[in-house]
Design a protein that fits this description.
It comes from Pygoscelis papua (Gentoo penguin). The chain is an alpha+beta fold and about 180 residues long. It is built from two helices and five strands.
Length: about 180
């Protein structure tokens, strides 16, 4: 078997072919080629790999995955974690690669499982004695005056009648002021 680079090793390879989904890179010292997928060419979005690399270009790559599939060894490479000018590793702890792997993971579909809330707010306030709320949420003042959130219909009618009465008296006061002038 040929001497393959170690996992996460950085080396300079030559672009053998460019496809619509990436570029195949010749690995120095062996006959194998590795794929740089277009998602691993740059930290920016790459639509056409041919805009980034051409056949015969020398590029710095990092071996990010070795995978046996159908009795063939498939090598995945990355250009975006290596400085293309110096060959320096931009992701020495492989944090970026781990994040990319997490994004690709398939998550289980939990939509079929129903969530049931069985808690019922069956409480009695210790402050006012009303049902449906706790003492810390109570609107009763310490003096004992109760405030309701929605006024009763009778209270609304009484308040409306009082408003109209006040309005009539203010109109009468305005007319008496005009006469005095």
């Amino acid at each position: 078997m040929e001497a393959l680079p170690e996992l996460y090793a950085i080396f300079q390879g030559e672009v053998a072919t460019v496809t619509e989904y990436g570029a195949f890179i010749k690995i120095p010292g062996c006959r194998k080629q590795g794929l740089v997928h277009k998602t691993h060419m740059s930290s920016c979005r790459v639509d056409k790999p041919s805009e980034i690399v051409d056949v015969g270009d020398k590029v710095w790559v990092k071996l990010i995955r070795k995978e046996m599939k159908d009795d063939k060894l498939k090598l995945s490479l990355s250009m975006k974690v290596v400085n293309q000018g110096t060959g320096k590793d931009l992701d020495p702890n492989n944090v970026s690669l781990d994040q990319d792997e997490r994004k690709k993971r398939m998550f289980r579909d939990y939509t079929s499982q129903k969530i049931t809330l069985e808690a019922v707010l069956n409480t009695v306030c210790k402050k006012c004695g009303c049902k449906g709320h706790f003492a810390k949420e109570c609107f009763v003042q310490p003096g004992g005056t109760k405030y309701s959130l929605i006024p009763e219909e009778e209270e609304e009618e009484v308040a409306a009648a009082g408003y109209e009465r006040d309005k009539k008296t203010s109109v009468a006061d305005d007319s008496s002021k005009k006469r005095k002038k």
